[in-house]
Amino acid sequence: MSSKAIKMIIPIALILILWFIPAPTGLTQNGWHFLAIFFAVVVGLILEPVPAALVGFTGICLVALLGLIGSPKDGIAWALSGFSNSVIWLIFAAFMFALGYKKTGLGKRVSLIMIRYMGKSSLGLGYAVAFSDLVLAPFMPSNTARSGGSVYPVAINIPHIFDSYPDKDPRKLGAYISWVAIATTCVTSSMFLTALAPNLLAVDLITKSTGHAISWVEWSSVMLPLMIPLFLLTPWLAYVVYPPTQKKSPEAPAWAKEELKTLGPVTFKEYLMGILATVALILWIFGKEFGVDATTVAISIVAIMVLTNVITWDDLISNKAAFDVLIWFSSLVAMASGLQKVGVLAWIGANTQTMLSGMAPTTLIISLLVLFFLLHYFFASVTAHVTALIPIFMAIAVNLLTPEQIVPFTIILAGSLGVMGIITPYGTGPSPIWYGAGYISQGKWWALGAIFGSLYLAVMILGAFIFI
After folding, report:
1. pTM score
2. Phi/psi at 168 (nearest 5 deg)?
3. Cα separations (Å) of 120 from 3, 236, 252, 439?
4. pLDDT band at 224 (very low <50, low <70, confident <90, very high)
5. Burial label, 307 (beta-carbon count in 10 A; 0-12, 13-18, 19+)
6. What sign for the dihedral angle of Cα 372, 377, 378, 379?
7. Which residues lie below 8 Å from residue 45, measured CB to CB, with a gap of 6+?
8. Is the pLDDT assigned to residue 353 strictly greater than 70?
9. Are the C-beta atoms of residues 150 and 185 closer than 8 Å to each other?
10. Which residues cross the membrane (predicted)?
11. Which of 202-211, 214-223, 397-406 has the lowest mean pLDDT?
């Protein structure tokens, strides 16, 4: 039997096994059956026997067909509810921003400019790679597109200048550049609400649990003070812990200068893309002052991008990654909301409140943050992590924390989604890309992941003491 067939059988077997087990005390049979399908969807997202979007889509179809939510009319209304979610469309629009950066060449130009002016030493090259990611992060919710699509094609050529290849002197420069790139994109993914699509998904699920929608400004007020020092520290720490043997790199700025000459002068479309991205960022930050919703801003900017030919309509409708995420996240939002509709979250909250009610609030908060972070070792997808754990952790937090503690706690909890991607070679979207470059062995990656992951988790815990 093929591995794909086994991966297909496991989620189905899980549903069948759980389906015929009597529902636990306090949970309806419908709720238990929904939970069985939910667990199967999470396992399917981890194993991926079929594309992840299809896993989620199949889950909502099965729930609707079996009538677990209610009448046929209620079932289909629930199944399609995720597609009307404004956060999902904000994510979709931001994918178009990423396409605009790539198509205009602005993303590549930013990376080359950083290398030209900061790349005279290996440490400087590390910071050039880091700042290339930082500049793009607020506008690109796919760290795969940002780090793997924009930074990687430029940065991976730098070690070749110094004759550093996966099978020849990888420690000379290539290993250092690879680690800095993945480590810093994890930090920037936590730094901005719009730097990682699962951040936005998590915030939407948190809103459903608490009734409070975390804004771009609220996220930044907590995460920027934590992430900026961590961002500045990361390339230097990698230089100390995993140093390149090549210390100077005078050839890199010269190479970047030649590459910029090849690109030619900044085009009108690059200027326009930069202006539109800046306007979007300003309105995301200050939109409430003008009565403008963040998603309205995003889709309006996308319309302008198409009308001004920054991207074409064909570019938009043929962007498989964006539509894949649209279907995927819409399905997962519906599945997560279903947990509340069938009473699963209320059941979890009631049971955990009994078990944890004697725990001191500080101990509870730290325990939840550490557990949420370490459980990522079992997930190959940040999105699967969000879908499986955010509703459960929120059911616990809402019942045991005070209203004043909930908002900063949820920001730090969701904010850890980016940095936790550092711990494994499969922990976040661009990890397989940088690991696949071949400069860092699997054993070394796990070791470095443990070191940097411990530091990143410590910063999140520190944030809990400061802000909660």
Report:
1. 0.80
2. -150, 110
3. 48, 15, 7, 22
4. very high
5. exposed
6. positive
7. 52, 55, 56, 381, 383, 384, 387, 388
8. no
9. no
10. 5-25, 52-70, 76-101, 122-140, 176-201, 222-242, 271-287, 294-313, 325-348, 360-379, 385-402, 409-426, 446-467
11. 397-406
